[in-house]
């Protein structure tokens, strides 16, 4: 196992609705097009989870857009006649004068990242020699530094400028989502609710009710933007993009803290997401929604704990509680759309992050489960999970909604 990579490869600004089903395939198609500039026709075969939810995730449109203006055909192959290296596998073919001139197989591994078969992974430098939270915690305690200081030490001071851009993009996605009403495309007739939620305050509203309403409105705003193929930040994925910004935006307003502290919180949250990405998976097609919203909740709770000035053990406990209570969470998007249950699920995840923070304030000294252990458990749970519940729209709500409607 190599060292962990930069947070600049975890947080990405891109278009929804899915980092693994839209951003990843589009990236692969762009690479293939650049390598076959003389082609007069392209064809893409998408397999497994990509095929089963491809229409709802707009995978075909993303590929065709990346290959344009050259004519391109996308074929959905839900059941491949070979063993897939990953549930999100695709083959690309280039043609010239009716003759095939090149081919490429790529897998979309989550968070917009891809691996091309037969090639070494191309990515930025490995910047974190520590591969587990236990190692990071030991290093920080020995050097008497906070987790956010550790991130700066490994990444360099330029990480703050990068995270400032990420935070601006997160806030923009909230503001945009709060400004729009109407029906989301896709056929489910899902109404945008963020603006409605945000403006439903009453004079006698309790602080607890207001907190739930505002946090949920912010999460709805981001994920409604995502569902409409708007611009969001992978945190760690598009489908889970609302949890971190919603909880941090609300807490920034409540605590009146400057952006500098938010950036440190994003650094710590990103560190937890990086650990999941390194040691498990952030792909819904590989491990279900526990890998997406579960990871996002861990990221958000750790970020909030950093914002509150909590100690390393408390931050770990917050992140562990957040993940532990998402274990087994399925990815069952109705009609393959990142709408139901995805949008509401982000709101619940953001509120759960705040709950995990509250527990960590008082109970971190009694914990029995480490963050590393819960990440390993999530990964093994995901691999054991029936494929119907891993972003294929063949089980759970997706299956029963079809039967009922």
Summarize the structure.
By secondary structure, the protein is an alpha+beta fold. It has helices spanning 19-35, 48-52, 59-67, 133-143, 147-155, 158-178, 194-198, 207-227, 243-255, 259-279, 284-287, 293-307, 312-324, 342-363, 371-384, 396-404, and strands spanning 4-5, 13-15, 41-47, 71-77, 89-96, 99-110, 113-116, 126-128, 231-233.
**How large is the radius of gyration?**
21 Å
- Note the gap between the termini: 47 Å
Kindly state the number of beta strands.
9
Alpha plus pi helix count: 16
| Derived structural class | alpha+beta
- Report the biggest beta sheet as strand number plus sense, adding barrel if it closes: 5 strands, mixed
- Average pLDDT over all residues: 95
Task: Name the shape in a single word.
Answer: globular
The proportion of residues in beta strands is 5-15%
SSE series: EEHEHHEEEEEHHHHHEHHHHHHHH
What topology does this entry show?
Elements (H helix, E strand, L loop, with lengths): L3 E2 L7 E3 L3 H17 L5 E7 H5 L6 H9 L3 E7 L11 E8 L2 E12 L2 E4 L9 E3 L4 H11 L3 H9 L2 H21 L15 H5 L8 H21 L3 E3 L9 H13 L3 H21 L4 H4 L5 H15 L4 H13 L17 H22 L7 H14 L11 H9 L1
Model description:
It contains 16 helices and nine strands. The termini are far apart. With 405 residues, it is an alpha+beta fold. The longest helix has 22 residues, at 342-363. The strands form three sheets. Strands 4-3-5-6-7 form a five-stranded mixed β-sheet. Helix 6 (158-178) crosses helix 8 and helix 12 packs antiparallel against helix 13. The chain is 52% helix and 12% strand. A hairpin with a 2-residue loop joins strand 6 (99-110) and strand 7 (113-116). The model has no long low-confidence stretch (mean pLDDT 95).
